[in-house]
Amino acid sequence: MPKYKIPKFVLNKATKHEGYFEAVIQLRDPNDELINFINNQLKKNPDVFIANILPQKNGFDIYISSQRFARSLGNKMKRAFKKSELKMTRSIFTRNRQTSKDVYRVTVFFRILDKEES
Predict the structure, then answer these.
(1) Which of 5, 14, 74, 83 is the S-S candidate for 108 at Cβ 3.0 to 4.6 Å?
(2) Which sequence spans correspond to the domains of the chain?
(3) What pLDDT, in 10s, does the model give residues 79-95?
């Protein structure tokens, strides 16, 4: 079981407090091509920032400031990497006091499958 080293990501300037996040991107079994793809997408969106990166057993979790960006990134990764697995879920985080609408946090799970698995 390989131990994954956290790669260098583009760190855009935070506009909210440093722990703020709306989405989690869970990358499992990532390769360099996927890391470069994510970095290129982050460079195109300077409003999106990474709040935290946590290592996991077979990859890492990226806490990101925009759930819209995370959902669109998941779809773009699925189109770019054909033999892959993508799951998007959302869970209620809180309720907005002014509008009484539910506020969600999104989780995007992405794994590149090996050739023998697909």
Answers:
(1) 74
(2) 23-112
(3) 999 899 999 998 888 88
